[in-house]
Amino acid sequence: MNQAVFNFLVDKSTRTVRVERSFDAPVELVWAAWTDPGILDQWWAAAPDRAMTATMNFTEGGRWHYCIVNPQGHKRWRLFNFELIRPLERFAGTDTFCDEHAVSDPSKPRVRWDYVFTSRAQGTIVNIAVRFERLEDLELIVRNGFTEQLEAGFNYLEQYIAAQFLLRKQYKNNNMARVATYLNFPGNTEEAFNFYKSVFRTDFTNGIKRFGDLPADPAHPPVGEALKKMVLHVELSILGGHVLMGTDAPKEMGFTLTQGNNMHISLEPDSREEAERLFKELSAGGKIQMPLQDMFWGAYYGDFTDKFGINWMVNYQNKA
């Protein structure tokens, strides 16, 4: 696709907003943008607000419990109930207001979302139907900039998130087990990694990939000069084969870092069975963010916060 398609139609007779958007990315990657909470949290809310997932169980009958946080720290809790899932093709469900314990508020409106993903030779088309119970709710959200918020979020998805996950596949080229620590920085990744490099006296794997290395796309606004030098991905081996991975998560692209989301321990076991054992035992008593499942970059992947508040990723990728 040479130019992104973005169509937006308000049908008051059915109280439905219909959105069509094209992406220059495979359907597996676009599907993940809506089903991986690590990606959803980066773009779902309109800046300066941010989304924050409490739990997600992406199965029919499962739920996504999340909140929208404003700059003052106020949280507006929501609950999405997954009613229909056809992997890589369609999912649908209802979104309601709730509290921090995931108890729905029946006095507040319910909104039904229906997503259809269509793979094309050069990308993916996503068709979204958003149906409101009351006409006044539909009119209010349109007046509050629903169209502009969606379009801005979609642009960031293509520019940044897609490249992040494609790089994960490129950097891991064998089945050897390893442990990595994934670090997020607000813009000083290169400074931090040059410091670590001097301490451990090792070198970067495949150099430093920067935002400016992303190919220009006339369908999207150009990357700002301040962002071009920021780090998209870097890897550094330290002791005993342990790997540090890092990226800049700039506020200019809607990212908000805290002491809780700036670091994950990433486990890359040498078998699918070991991935399942580690995930099951480490997540016991904790909060699962993404259940262990086959992902678009060829990995068996899941992530969670353990009962002590530590963030983990389990990522098995068969390179046979």
UniProtKB/TrEMBL annotation:
Gene3D superfamilies: 2,3-Dihydroxybiphenyl 1,2-Dioxygenase, domain 1 (3.10.180.10), 3.30.530.20. Residues 24-151 form the Activator of Hsp90 ATPase homologue 1/2-like C-terminal domain. Pfam families: 3-dmu-9_3-mt, AHSA1. Residues 179-314 form the PhnB-like domain. Belongs to the AHA1 family. This is Uncharacterized protein. It comes from Pedobacter yulinensis.
